[in-house]
Amino acid sequence: MARRRRLEPPTSDALAHIRAAAASDPDGREPFPVLRPPPIAQVAQDSVAAQRREIDTLRAEAARNQAAADRLERAESAGMLVVDVALDQIDPDYLTRDRLLRSEEDDAGRALRQSIQAHGQRTPIEVVDLGPERPGAYGLISGCRRLVAIRRLLAETGDARWATVRALVRGRTTLGQAFLSMVEENEVREGLSYFERGRVCMLAAQQGAFGSVDAAIEALFAAGSPAKRSKIRSFTLLAEEIGDMLTRPEMLGERLGLRVAQAIRSGKGGALRRHLEAYAGSHCGAAEEQAALSRFLNGAADGQGAAPPDDAAQPPEERVLADGGRIVCRARRNGLRIDLTGVALSAAAREAVLDALAAAVNRAHAD
User: Fold this and answer.
1) What is the pLDDT of residue 35?
2) Fewer CB near the terminus (10 Å): N or C of the chain?
3) pTM
C-alpha cells in the first residue's frame, strides 16, 4: 500500500519565492490567482444570507399584520367598524324613539327608500351589542328611518341585498349614553321638534336612564342654551299631560306649545284634556289640532276655559317596585292615567303588562 503524504502549508519563504517568480514572469502571464473559498462554502454562505433576508421579510410582514389587527381591534371597540347585520338580529324597540314615526309613509320616507334602492345604503345605522343576555342581537340606537326603508324594500322586492343593513356596532353602553347617541345623531342630521325633544326626555327618565326629567334635559341637550333647555322643559310638561291625545304633536309650533304649557302649569290640564276629548273625532290633522288648542287658550283667557282642575283635587296613588321603579296612578274624569317609571321593558314584557292590566280592569268592571 502506498504511503500517504501529509500535505503541509507553504512556508513564508516559499510564498515569497512564488510571488517573486510571478512578478518577474517574462511572458507577461497573469500572476497566480488569489485563493477563493471552495464552491460548497460559497453556496452555504449564500444560503445563510438568503435565509436571513427571508426571516427579515417575514418579521416585517408579521409586524404589519399585528399593527393592522391592533387598528381593527381599536376601531371595533370604539364602534367605528361598519359591518353587515341581518335585519332579524336588530331590535328596533331597544330605545323609545325620539323622532315620531308615522304608520303611513310621508314624502321624506318615500324619497329615502327610493334613494337607497337606487344608490344603496350610504350612511350606516348605529346599533349596540346586547351582549351575553341576548347573543347575536343588536339594539337600534339611531337610523330608524333607514332601517324601516330597508325592511320595506326587502318586503316589496324580496331581493337578498336588503336582507342586511350596514351598521356601526357600538360596545356595551349605559341606557343614558344610548339615548344621548340617538338624540345627538338626529339633532345633527335634522333637528327634532320641541315636542319630540321634551318627549324623549320624559321617556328617558321614565325608563330609568336618568334620575329625573331635569337630569335628562341637562344630559341630552347639554350643548343647548339655557333658553332652549327651558323650552324643552315646557314641552316635556306638555308631553306628560296631553301627549297621548295629540295626533301630530311634532307639528306644534314653539309659541303655541309654550302657551299650552303655561296653561297646564296654571292648573288647566284637566280642562284641556276634556276640551280635546270633545274634539277627538274632528281634529285629525295638525291644523285642526292646533286650532282646537288655540280655541281653548282663547277661551281660558276670557275666563271660559278655566274649569276647576279636578285632577289636581285627587292626589295620585303610587306603588314602589322591588327594583326601585314606580307606578303612579292619577284619576281622570273619565278614566285613569298610569305612569311606570324607572323600569325598561321589552316589547314582549309590555304586551304582558297590558294584558294583565286589561284582565284586571275587566274583572273590576264585572264586579
Assistant:
1) 55
2) N
3) 0.50
